[in-house]
Write a structure and sequence with these properties.
The complex is a heterodimer of chains A (about 290) and B (about 325).
Chain A (H helix, E strand, L loop, with lengths): L1 H31 L6 H21 L7 H24 L7 H23 L9 H4 L2 E3 L5 E3 H23 L1 H11 L1 H6 L4 H23 L9 H16 L4 H21 L4 H15 L10
Antiparallel strand pairs in A: 1-2
Helix pairs in contact in A: 1-6, 1-9, 1-10, 1-11, 2-3, 2-4, 2-9, 2-10, 3-9, 6-7, 10-11, 10-12, 11-12
Chain B lengths: L2 H5 L2 H6 L5 H16 L2 H26 L8 H16 L5 H23 L4 H21 L1 H4 L5 E2 L15 H6 L1 H21 L2 H11 L1 H6 L4 H27 L1 E2 L6 H14 L6 H19 L3 H15 L4 H5 L8
Antiparallel strand pairs in B: 1-2
The chains are: A mainly alpha (about 290), B mainly alpha (about 325).
Chain lengths: ~290, ~325
Amino acid sequence: MLSSVNILVGGAFHAAVLFLVACGLQIVFGVQKIVNLACGSFYAIGAYFGITALALAFQMHVPVFGYIPVLVGSGLLLAAFLGPVVERVLRFIYHRDEHFQLLLTFAFVLMFEDIIRIIWGASPRQTENIYQVFGEFHLASGMTIPAYNLIVIAVAIALSLVLGWFLQRTRFGKIVRATAENAAMCEALCIDVSRVYMVVFTLGVALGTTGGALVVPATAASLDMGVELIVDAFAVVVIGGLGSMPGALVGALIVGFVRAAAISIYPEFEVLAIYVLVIAVLILRPRGLLGKAI
Amino acid sequence: MSLAETTAAPATRNMAKFAYAVPVIGFALIAVFPYIAGPHYTILMFSAMGFAIALFGLNLLFGFTGLLPFGHAMFLAIGAYTAAYLTAAKYMSLELILLTAAAAAIVIAIPVGLLCIRYIKIYFGMLTLAFSMLLYSFLFKFYKITGGDEGLRIKMPTPSLFDLSKHDTITILTGPLYYYVFGLMLVLALIMWRIVDSPFGLGLRAIRENEQKAKYLGVNVQRYRLVAFVVAGVYGALGGVIVAIPVGLADPSLAYWVQSGNLVFMLLLGGYTNFFGPVLGAVLFIFFQDQLMSYTEYWRLTFGVLLAVIVIFFPNGLMAVIDRRRWWST
């Protein structure tokens, strides 16, 4: 009983963060057809930036309920700076073979690892007891659930609803989906496709940085968190289907729960189980559970 | 007969007289290297030759067949762990280790290849990445079999050609074993040249250019791709054995996806459009990394910028800048 609640809450927490980062990967792939290896790096730099933002908020005596807006805001602010710059560099190779696009994002993985090292140093960083500040829920059977985990899950759901509304209901969202469908036709219809690409990529970065910022009160920020997360986010999009938002949700839930279950039942299989699943999906249904036909 | 030969303009065909100039000068430099550089740099060159062997295989897939694996480091790990297991069991013969590593690579590359080659482009890359991460997490987590994150020690293997019993490690690595590996690299490069210069190699290029047309011409696309994948795997494992010998350790990071990314980086640096790009890429990467690391701890930033510049401005790599002729083109 104890372990099953742990698996559920831990899995949902991990799934919520993974979902945000995977959404960033999906939207960039869906519209720009680029597999962005650097999305893990945006997650990592978002985490470090979140810690700095929290420390500032602490000094300015921001009340406890203000911490979450500070974290989300720091993610968005960082993305507004990073997104357009990185997208500008990627623009050199939009017309080229996708292998080169993948490699250019790998170049950003290398760069961001050192940029983090230069700004924040090599040792892991942690926030001070923010995690406990939010308190915990006591269940009838004497178990406790950290409230912060539930808050992050709620924030992730809220952010994904906003994203869904933006893509489905707004005029610009419709333009984004049209560009994903056929960029050349959109260009012919006088849509500024390079602006759409810039906004979409920045949005992808924002999902990564916000995901990273939300995770720091619960875990320490370390230099390898980016390259480690990309492995999970990648599993999410393959299982769910490249370019599919509902797929990212399904994939994130599967990876989150499988990982949480493996950690508490048989730790040796933590990553192995996920990759066996990825390979099974790629063999049996290469488009992913909810993806479009290749 | 190579594709380059048939398509070369008359002016460039005359240049074929000097076609051997750049590679011969390059290999001659590597041959005299232990005499002009200290042991530290000679051992670096030793690892670079190991990477060059692995990259010859990688280029058969990327440069010749048009498939980019993003998990090729998996085979480096297979080679390194084979060396670790055999030397731990007192089988010290280098030939035996190389043959076993090649056999292990074949045994693993056939089923993995059969699954991977069903896909092309980004999906092929992702599936190979998934398999390499599978191997990585196995090596990392199953402590009792694989030594976990500490890895396994590799004792100095002995080639049957020389008697090395009375030398110390550095003398072996910079002397007899250096030339053994140099010879191995030359032989493997020659074999690779025979492969890409054969009708099979032409078939691979035809697949790269246009899969549909290749199929109409009677090329068995899937079988060609599988053979290319297995050969690339064997080269990867042989390279892995050589790379791991000077380190003396087989550890899981060899199979990590960043290592696969670095392999592709090396290939791109040297140039996938040239047959000798792998050698140049491996040597430049290893030495540049060593120099940068001694100046600054932020070598990744420099490398990231370098990779970005290469991808954007010199996608054909440095070998294409040095040697513009098409004689050795892929």
